[in-house]
Amino acid sequence: MILGLTGGIASGKSFVADLFVECGASLVSADLLAREVVNQGSPTLAKLVDAFGVDILTAGGSLKREVMAQKVFSDPLARHRLELITHPAIAHLAECRLMELKNSPHDLIVYEAPLLFEAGAESRVDQILVVVIDPALQVERLLTRDEISEAEAKQRIATQWPQADKVQKADFVIDNSGSLEQTRHAVTSLYHYLVETAGSGPSRR
Q1: Strand ranges, E, within 25-119
Q2: 54: part of which helix (H) or strand (E)?
Q3: How confident is the model at residue 106 (pLDDT cuts 50, 70, 90)?
Q4: DSSP labels for 95-133?
Q5: Does residue 116 fall inside a structural domain?
Q6: Is residue 158 a part of any domain in this protein?
Q7: Which of 33, 107, 124, 199 is 20 to 30 Å apart from 63, CA to CA?
């Protein structure tokens, strides 16, 4: 089965994804796919340059990610233009990778996608896990991770669906506000549950 893993920015999705891999799951990361589709010389990167200008490129011709982020996080129209260009490319690559994994034996495939709901990608997965975090801790982690101001952190959080809305559409929820060991225990328990019940149909959280 394919488990969609999503949650808000700086909620700890990648940590949770890594824990699933430790348990034995195979992982497809939408973030890594997003980087791959804008590799230097790619058609998607060329479309971004046409839409946003050559100042989004380094001297070597690769994408300046921070410049791109600054252009879209404060401008909903620019963000929508970015998504129209990148989402189809990411979707195609994701479907190819997931199909490859489904055609070989795997106990569990995890599709980590921060914008699973925003991109309308729920159909790619069988069940959905949402990672949530205390809002104050989310801001604190984002400030530390990205070295941005509190206002910028809150702006980035506001561009995504609220946590409560994601929880309403989830099959499973893990709260990552506690210790690393608490999250590890929750992931390990869920992994074994999913492997043991694979094929028995969805079970709400």
Answers
A1: 26-29, 109-112
A2: none
A3: confident
A4: HHHHHHHHTS--S-EEEE-TTTTTTT-GGG-SEEEEEE-
A5: yes
A6: yes
A7: 124
Rounded-to-integer distance, Cα 114 and Cα 129, Å: 11
Which residues contact residue 145 at a Cβ distance below 8 angstroms, ignoring those fewer than 6 apart?
Answer: 10
Looking at residue 33, its pLDDT comes to 96
For 101, the domain range is 2-36+97-197
Angle value at C-alpha 61, between 112 and 59, nearest 5 degrees? 125
Separation between Cα atoms, residue 199 and residue 166, nearest integer Å: 24
Cβ 40 vs Cβ 81: under 8 Å:
no
Tokens of 57: 């490129």
**Cβ atoms of residues 109 and 98 within 8 Å:** yes
Residue 64 is given by DSSP the state: -
In a domain? residue 7: yes
Count CB-CB contacts under 10 A for residue 90: 24
Residue type (1 letter), 1: M
The amino acid at 105: P
Q: What distance in Å separates the CA atoms of residue 150 and residue 144, rounded to the nearest whole number?
A: 10
Domain count, the chain: 1
What are the angstrom distances between the C-alpha of 96 and each of 6, 15, 26, 100? 20, 24, 14, 6
- Residue 199 gets the label, from left (phi > 0), alpha (psi -120 to 50) or beta, of left
Does the predicted TM-score (pTM) go above 0.90?
Answer: no
Tell me what percent of the residues of the chain surpass a pLDDT of 90.
Answer: 82
* 81 lies in some domain: no
